[in-house]
């Protein structure tokens, strides 16, 4: 005898079934990780929400949104956590439902399975700008995917929602524009390679415009005080140049200061954190306090022009670390935390049942499967193989792959730390683009070449993890305080 529930389920359309599946996965994820994980950055932002005093070290747009929930009586991190997961599963659910509607069952299943992959879901349970950005961009992609994959045109309300979501995403991370600009251009108008000069011009103009406007929005519209965060990139790069080209390479600070940097072993290509005020090498930051921003930037760019080789060597060493390519197995700043940072604001932690899941996520992240370089190789393969003019799925895959590629390449120039979570969106976008690519056959010979190159990246990444010595298993080891 057939159960009534089973009969009702069979009556649902394929799209409805996958939409229901995404909703159930969202509810289970919310229950499993409730009330979300509040890490150091989360606690710092919530302190701003409670005090009503905002600064730009963390994105003020996120703190302002958080304050609206608190003002409505919903305290703690749970509203921002719920928002992240609703957008996350909403975006994936819309894409899966659209794929099911056009008969691409395997791809629809893969889209939902992508959302369950432990590294992605565990990090999206942490209330951070990275999860906010990735979830907002997934939701925007889902809205467009639902229309385009099912042969519909975007409506005015769809465009407004996409612009709102991408506008939030671009303000919630300082470097988000490198990912948002190519995605926005590809979502708001179907991608066509024959119009690539116009598209790339729009991406470039949009990127420059946002970089110019963001400080005005943060300080003017959102009322955030300047924190000096803009000096972190120059400090990190100048330290790298001085480490490679000698203490006279960066005259902004004295020869003795840079000699002390080397003597104290302050520099590491992993991150800049050791130079923060209060850390053991905070004397760099302290020496620059009160200096005009223009003077710091002139010293930075002057050192780059005078020693381009040292600068390139430093940036490539850092890019290798943040891409987790040729690195030891247990490179810190990767594993998701199962509990919240100790705090005085009542920000709680999920139940201990999440600990094995997060431990599994950490193991996967440490492996080559969790290396952002593998996602970059996949995104480049999608760009080489996709035929957007022949397939709506390919037309959606291209802006996703472009977004992932642009974001990962931007770390060659704009990045000061190797945290894995910074790559959450890029990795989601790359693998989702691959799922969309495989909705239809691709030319065999180019596909084999692309697969061989991806495997080469994976094998060399595995070799690095096996052969290279550990540089410390945790953040404290790297800081050395």
TrEMBL record:
It comes from the Bacteria. Keywords: Membrane, Transmembrane, Transmembrane helix. The lineage of its organism: Bacteria, Pseudomonadati, Pseudomonadota, Alphaproteobacteria, Sphingomonadales. The chain crosses the membrane at residues 18-37, 81-100, 107-126, 161-184, 196-214, 395-416, 422-438, 450-468. The keyword Transmembrane applies. This is Glycosyltransferase RgtA/B/C/D-like domain-containing protein. The keyword Transmembrane helix applies. It comes from Sphingomonas kyeonggiensis.
């Amino acid at each position: 005898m057939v159960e009534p529930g089973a009969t009702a389920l069979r009556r649902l359309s394929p799209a409805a079934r996958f939409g229901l599946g995404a909703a159930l996965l969202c509810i289970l994820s919310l229950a499993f990780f409730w009330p979300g994980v509040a890490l150091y950055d989360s606690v710092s932002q919530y302190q701003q929400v409670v005090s009503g005093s905002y600064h730009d070290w963390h994105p003020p747009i996120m703190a302002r949104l958080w304050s609206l929930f608190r003002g409505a009586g919903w305290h703690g991190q749970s509203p921002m956590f719920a928002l992240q997961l609703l957008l996350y599963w909403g975006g994936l659910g819309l894409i899966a439902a659209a794929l099911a509607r056009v008969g691409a069952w395997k791809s629809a299943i893969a889209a939902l399975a992508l959302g369950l992959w432990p590294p992605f879901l565990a990090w999206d349970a942490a209330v951070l700008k990275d999860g906010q950005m990735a979830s907002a961009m997934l939701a925007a992609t889902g809205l467009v995917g639902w229309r385009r994959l099912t042969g519909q045109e975007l409506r005015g309300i769809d465009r407004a929602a996409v612009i709102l979501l991408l506008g939030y995403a671009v303000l919630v991370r300082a470097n988000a524009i490198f990912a948002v600009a190519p995605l926005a251009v590809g979502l708001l108008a179907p991608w066509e390679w024959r119009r690539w000069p116009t598209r790339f011009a729009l991406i470039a103009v949009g990127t420059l415009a946002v970089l110019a406007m963001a400080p005005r929005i943060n300080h003017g519209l959102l009322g955030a005080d300047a924190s000096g965060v803009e000096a972190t990139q120059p400090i990190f790069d100048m330290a790298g140049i001085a480490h490679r080209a000698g203490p006279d390479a960066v005259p902004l600070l004295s020869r003795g200061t840079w000699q002390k940097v080397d003597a104290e072993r302050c520099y590491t290509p992993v991150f800049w954190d050791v130079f923060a005020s209060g850390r053991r090498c905070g004397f760099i930051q302290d020496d620059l306090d009160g200096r005009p921003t223009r003077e710091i930037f002139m010293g930075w760019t002057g050192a780059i022009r005078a020693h381009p080789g040292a600068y390139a060597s430093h940036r490539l060493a850092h890019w290798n670390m943040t891409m987790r390519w040729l690195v030891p197995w247990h490179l810190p700043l990767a594993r998701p935390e199962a509990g919240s940072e100790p705090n005085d604001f009542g920000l709680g932690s999920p139940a201990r049942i999440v600990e094995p899941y997060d431990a599994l996520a950490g193991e996967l992240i440490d492996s080559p499967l969790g290396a952002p370089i593998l996602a970059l190789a996949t995104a480049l393969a999608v760009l080489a193989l996709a035929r957007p003019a022949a397939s709506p799925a390919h037309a959606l895959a291209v802006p996703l792959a472009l977004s992932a590629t642009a974001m990962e390449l931007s770390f060659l120039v704009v990045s000061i730390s190797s945290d894995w979570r910074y790559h959450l969106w890029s990795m989601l976008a790359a693998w989702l683009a691959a799922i969309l690519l495989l909705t239809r056959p691709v030319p065999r010979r180019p596909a084999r070449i692309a697969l061989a190159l991806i495997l080469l990246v994976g094998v060399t990444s595995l070799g690095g993890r096996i052969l290279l010595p550990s540089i410390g298993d945790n953040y404290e080891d790297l800081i050395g305080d």
